Amino acid sequence: QVQLVESGGGLVQAGGSLNVSCRASMIITGFIRMGWYRQAPGKQRELVALITTGGDRTHYADSVKGRFTISRDITKNTMYLQMNSLKPEDTGVYYCNAVIVMDYWGKGTPVTVSS
Predict the structure, then answer these.
(1) Measured CA distances, 66 to 3, 6, 73, 114 (Å)
(2) Residue 11 in this model has a pLDDT that exceeds 80
(3) Which residues, in sequence order, are CB contacts of 104 under 8 Å at separation 6+?
(4) How far apart are CA 33 and CA 97, in angstroms?
(5) CB atoms within 10 A of CB 85
């Protein structure tokens, strides 16, 4: 059973930064891809960023391009999302996703950006 555990969320003022992490219970190079999704109150879960197995390709939602950076450390089996220039609309629960045969999800870490 694959387990994904997020951490690093919190409360930050607009314009600030946060770095959220996702630690996997298996070697992350075994995943087809990994990514971050978020769900704001009353809204559907949406894609934030993806990273491929080799770490050589990334994809970002238009709303976060230029502000967020997805990365990973295979020695720690951990994926990161560095979030800069945060806006109130970035508020939500951030979920880690990993794909190998099926989708696996973490329980999420809340991010609140105050104006």
Answers:
(1) 30, 23, 21, 20
(2) yes
(3) 2, 3, 4, 97, 98
(4) 8
(5) 13
pLDDT digits (tens, 9 = 90+) for 32-78: 899 999 999 999 999 999 998 787 899 999 999 999 999 999 999 99
CA count, 13 A, side-chain hemisphere, 110: 4
> What is d(CA 106, CA 97) in angstroms, rounded to the nearest whole number?
7
Assigned token pair, 2: 């694959």
The secondary structure of 10-50 as a DSSP string is EEEETT--EEEEEEESS-GGGSSEEEEEEE-TTS--EEEEE
Pick from 33, 38, 73, 77: nearest CA to 57: 33
Distant-in-sequence, close-in-space partners of 115: CB < 8 Å, separation ≥ 6: 14, 88
Q: How far apart are CA 106 and CA 115, in angstroms?
A: 28
The predicted structure's pLDDT at residue 56: 82
